[in-house]
Amino acid sequence: MANITPISTESCKIGFIGAGKMAESIARGVINSGVLPASNVRTAHLGLRRTVFESFGTKVFDQNSQVVQDSDVVIFSVKPQVVKDVVLQLRPLLSEKQLLVSVVAGVKLKDLQEWAGHSRFIRVMPNTPAAVGVAASGMPFCLFLLSPYSARVYIRDDSFLKKVLYTVITLGDAATKEDGELISKIFGAIGKVWTAQEKLFDAITGLSASGPAYIFLAIEALADGGVAAGLPRELSLGLASQMVLGAASMAVSTGKHPGQLKDDVASPGGTTIAGIHELEKAGFRGILMNAVVAAAKRGQELSKN
Ligand SMILES: NC(=O)C1=CN([C@@H]2O[C@H](COP(=O)(O)OP(=O)(O)OC[C@H]3O[C@@H](n4cnc5c(N)ncnc54)[C@H](O)[C@@H]3O)[C@@H](O)[C@H]2O)C=CC1
Ligand SMILES: O=C(O)[C@@H]1CCC=N1
């Protein structure tokens, strides 16, 4: 607990360990939203990804160690299978002056903290729509979860306690309320942030982190359907994408139950109910439910690797 200094949102430097697709989505989103200038975002890579990150102004080093040394917030965005080795390698350079963040699917905070050697750590589960400012990020009360090192109840700020009273209110040694607010602000600039207990994280991953891929698949398939029904490909893809955007916006902005919104579209004896009948015959809802459950289960498996 020696070096817990607050990190300023305005001047904070964030560094990605792992210059992949998720890091790119977050970095692009953060820079485009204006929450941080590109000069405050850094990563390391020697290959092709270097050019991608440089193209939107990010500083790209050769080594992960340089990223750590030049960042206030270090975001681990490598694959679950390598994160342990990567954190252990960097451990000598990690200090409690830095806030550590993981977007890695499946890997638990207690393991991350143990590998890093300190627990000023926050776990976040974003999704790639971060790049266009409409991410859904689950941020657990993991900063309030029990640390294997020195668990304690957080009672520095009454209003904060009231807010989290109905959930788990223990936290890792070192992540502070201000750290949580900083990460909420950064991820809030690229989409909507929810807080949830860490035990819900695999389910969150199976739904909102993997979910964009299900919908991209659906958009592609819907566009194929349009082509099969005679539409030109470009028109069909445009219609399918915009329709999904419109449907999601309507579900969010009206707050109506999706079943009601569905009923509003389906006229008696009309076209929509004919389409829905086909979807139901093929088990459409069950298939989507199974996809989320299978992805959540895979997240659980990854935590055991
Ligand atoms: N892609 C997505 O939609 C989401 C991904 N995530 C999580 O984000 C993490 C990254 O996923 P993606 O960006 O999709 O994967 P990716 O494969 O695009 O990116 C991983 C990057 O890490 C780099 N890398 C590998 N070993 C490294 C090392 N030792 N040091 C530095 N960099 C190294 C790779 O070269 C690659 O560029 C994963 O843990 C995943 O679970 C979480 C939510 C959504
Ligand atoms: O497929 C994956 O493992 C990552 C995690 C969630 C989305 N993409």
From TrEMBL:
Keywords: Amino-acid biosynthesis, Cytoplasm, NADP, Oxidoreductase, Proline biosynthesis. Gene3D superfamilies: NAD(P)-binding Rossmann-like Domain, ProC C-terminal domain-like. SUPFAM superfamilies: 6-phosphogluconate dehydrogenase C-terminal domain-like, NAD(P)-binding Rossmann-fold domains. It catalyses: L-proline + NAD(+) = (S)-1-pyrroline-5-carboxylate + NADH + 2 H(+); L-proline + NADP(+) = (S)-1-pyrroline-5-carboxylate + NADPH + 2 H(+). Pathway: Amino-acid biosynthesis; L-proline biosynthesis; L-proline from L-glutamate 5-semialdehyde: step 1/1. Residues 198-302 form the Pyrroline-5-carboxylate reductase dimerisation domain. It is found in: Cytoplasm. InterPro entries: 6-PGluconate_DH-like_C_sf, NAD(P)-bd_dom_sf, P5C_Rdtase_cat_N, P5CR-like_CS, P5CR_dimer, Pyrroline-COOH_reductase. GO terms for cellular component: cytoplasm. It comes from the Eukaryota. GO terms for biological process: amino acid biosynthetic process. It holds the Pfam family F420_oxidored. The keyword tRNA processing does not apply. Its EC number is 1.5.1.2. Residues 13-106 form the Pyrroline-5-carboxylate reductase catalytic N-terminal domain. NADPH binds at N64. One of its GO terms (molecular function) is pyrroline-5-carboxylate reductase activity. NADP(+) binds at I17, G18, A19, G20, K21, M22. It is an enzyme of class 1 (oxidoreductase). Belongs to the pyrroline-5-carboxylate reductase family. This is Pyrroline-5-carboxylate reductase. It comes from Salvia divinorum.
